[in-house]
Amino acid sequence: MTYKALRKEVCDANHELQNINLTFLGRGEVSGLDRERGVMVVKPASISHERLIPEDMLVLDFSGTRLEGTLAPSPDAITHLYLAQAFMEVGFIVSSFGPHTAMFAQALRPIPCLGSLHAAHFKGEIPITRMLRKPELDRSYEKSLAAVIIERFGRMVHLETPAVLVASHGAVAWGQTSEEAVLKARAVEELARIALGALQLAPTIQPIPAMLVERTFADYRK
User: How far apart are CA 220 and CA 222, in angstroms?
Assistant: First the structure.
């Protein structure tokens, strides 16, 4: 049993993530799932994006056991594995570290929905997780990151708001296809950049009304 097609798709998506400047000094990655076969393809920690080839990609089962590949997965890949088990409709998961995304994450601020450009992609603000507590850090950093993301969503629909800022970290986005997941990660960065400028021009600006968010989000999906 091989996973050649998925390894290539995930490798190509990681190259695209670097091409659109959503990686930072080797951090940032895309992982992809084959739910029927119970596996996730992830980027190894020790290989840079520019040198990455499909044969380098790791294949893990849902318990984290390596089925193909000899290198260690990155910490973000382990977080993706736990998220995949909670967000069942998701096919691909992205950790991104665009500069404006990181600004909001480090400021511990969600990205407010200030206009229709935002509402076309996300049904409201892009939320932010709480900080990890010491016991969570002591247990498992990677698993705890996934846990606070899942906790933050609560009753939210994760396909209506397919991204989250991780406090003092970066962003995690997802989609049913690799193109959709990378697009949502790119949208987070662009919307963070636009929101930062809008808040500088008008510090008291408020989010757009919920009815406009609903209408724009629905129209974008027709």
Answer: 6
From the list 8, 175, 182, the residue with the least C-alpha distance to 92 is 175
Whether the pTM exceeds 0.90: the reply is yes
Residues across the chain: 222
> The tokens of 126 are what?
């892009």
Give buried/exposed letters for 27-49 (b at 16+ CB in 10 A, else e): bbbbbbbeeeeebbbbbbbebeb
44: helix, coil or strand?
A: strand
Q: Answer for the pair 76, 30: CB distance below 8 angstroms, yes or no.
A: no
Contact 152, 130 (CB under 8 A): yes
DSSP 160-184: TS-EEEETTTEEEEEESSHHHHHHH
pLDDT in tens, 24-75: 988 999 999 999 999 999 999 989 999 999 999 999 999 999 999 989 998 8
Q: What's the distance, CA 56 to chain centroid?
A: 21
CATH class of the 4-220 domain in this structure: alpha beta
Q: Which DSSP helix (H) or strand (E) runs through 86?
A: helix 75-86
- At residue 68, the 3 state secondary structure works out as strand
